[in-house]
Amino acid sequence: MHKDIRERKVFFSYRITPDRSYFTIRDQGDGFNWRQRKDASDELNLALHGHGIKMVGHYVENLGYNERGNEVAFEFPHANHESNAVPGVFANQEELLCNNGDVVFTEGEESNHLYYIVSGKLEIFSGNNLVSTLSPDDIFLGEMSFLLNNRRSATVVSRGHSSLIRVSKNDFVDVIKRHPHYGLFLARLLAQRLSKLNTMVSRLQAGEETTDAQRRL
Predict the structure, then answer these.
(1) Structural domain includes residue 136
(2) Are residues 169 and 94 in the same domain?
(3) Which of 32, 40, 78, 105 could form a disulfide with 45 if both were Cys (CB 3.0 to 4.6 A apart)?
């Protein structure tokens, strides 16, 4: 392989929202004539090139290239899944099957595991108060106390049948070493949850201020 090619880099960025995921991939190559390949419709034009473009168009939305042809961007819409497939990196981890009312972990206990939500509904209690319900769309459970090495801040109870993958700290660190993008993904997920939490707190505070004002009136 030519030295110049070996030294070229590939840049990958993504953004995840509740409804869609956005990806951009760019390399330092010369690019290609994507218009010719993208518009190819007959087998003659697709004989050697263009199959990848044609195939990926069936799986992503808003596929587009920059003028030079060395950057591609695309989107994935999120479906409201009733269950998640188990990622290959967690395939050998312990599966926890819960029945209705089973306690996954209790407020105040040590946070030795992270949980990947495969299926089911999980209710989050602070004291006796139900504060949230998680589903497979939330992907992970117990990640905050797990990463911060804090004790559990809430009790989690399975509502109906649920399936979880329990990942120990050592195994999770090993996954991050082998697949660093999982760490980035989890960091973004945490940021999104903190943003939602801040919004909820702001709304609660606004409600309390309104109530206080009404009382004064």
Answers:
(1) yes
(2) yes
(3) 40
What are the two backbone dihedrals, phi and then psi, of residue 99, each rounded to the nearest 5 degrees? -100, 170
Query: Do residues 40 and 119 share a domain?
Result: no
CA dist 199 to 15, 192, 202, 209, Å? 20, 11, 5, 15
Q: For the chain, how many residues are written?
A: 217
Distance, CA of 136 to CA of 160 (rounded, Å): 14
| Domain final position from 35, 54, 77 | 77
- Residue 53 in any domain: the answer is yes
Vertex 168, ends 184 and 165: CA angle to 5°? 80
Q: CA-to-CA distance for 112 and 46, rounded, in angstroms?
A: 53
Each residue of 10-44: pLDDT tens digit? 999 998 887 789 999 999 988 888 877 665 554 54
C-alpha 176/C-alpha 170 separation (Å) is: 10
